[in-house]
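This section describes the prediction task in plain terms. A model, or a person checking by hand, is given the sequence of a single protein chain and must write out its three-dimensional structure as a string of tokens. No templates, partner chains or ligands are provided. The sample shown here is typical of the held-out split.
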Amino acid sequence: MTAGCPPHEWLVRYALGEPTGPDRRQGPGPGPDPGPDPGLAAAEAHLDACDDCTRIIVRQVRRGPHAAHLDALHVRVTTAVHSPPRHPLPLGSPSRRSLPGLSAAPALRWSWAAALLGVCATGVVLARLAGARDLSTGWLLPWLLMCAPLLPLLGVAMSYGPQADPFHEVAAVSPSGGIKLLLWRTGQILAVCLPVLTLTGFLLPRGQVPLTAAAWLLPSLALTLATLALGSWLGCGPAAVLTGGGWLAAVGVPVAARLTVDPAVRPRIDVALLLDALSPLMSPPAQGGWALGAGVCCVVLFARRRAFGGAVGAC
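The expected answer:
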């Protein structure tokens, strides 16, 4: 142990879960919780980097009252990790690693399937609504079309919610959780949905699955990957604000300009007006641009992959 290490008695109390410092509440009685002790936070930061203190704590924990419970928990975890899967893939099938999100966590298979179906249904519904201009009297539909790239994220978030994700609490407090995990999951789901919807639109009879269903999801994929790429420098929160604000500006500015210039248009956003503003963003040349942008973002993410693994990560 070095001069900067806590005293041995402090380490013993810390390992046994006993109070390690004076009571910082003011006055008699229970009083309000004063919050975390800054001295304890500094000591825990030291423990992360000190092997000598870590060995002392491990030794005291194994001598403490919870040693038997920890040993039993260790056996359960190692047994579950090293046990063979209940439903192994047949010979000749693709490797489990080629099925992202499906076999890496078997408990999340239903969430993955629900997100996949939900995002595919979102693309089909948006394509059908965009083709029905007679629905322009509804107040919800224009906002639904304007926020189209956000809808897949909402579907994925609901599919992996607390009710369906057994690891929700762990993911919520982990450094890779939160919006970054949601963006990675959404990008993964969209990468699967786009070819599925494209092939389905060509194979099924005309009209059952509109060919434009995948076109409504491609901007969402490009914006999701762009948010992750920008997040490697700025953080996923500010990056999401930038990409979302950019989309709303690209859609809202033409609509606002027409509402101001054309006095014949009522001061409300209807479907026909919004589709006119969206048409440059959804045209075939624009789809090529979205696909190219998604490919560039994939290259950036590969080049910046180390930025997502550090303790002070960009996201």
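For orientation: The radius of gyration is 26 Å.
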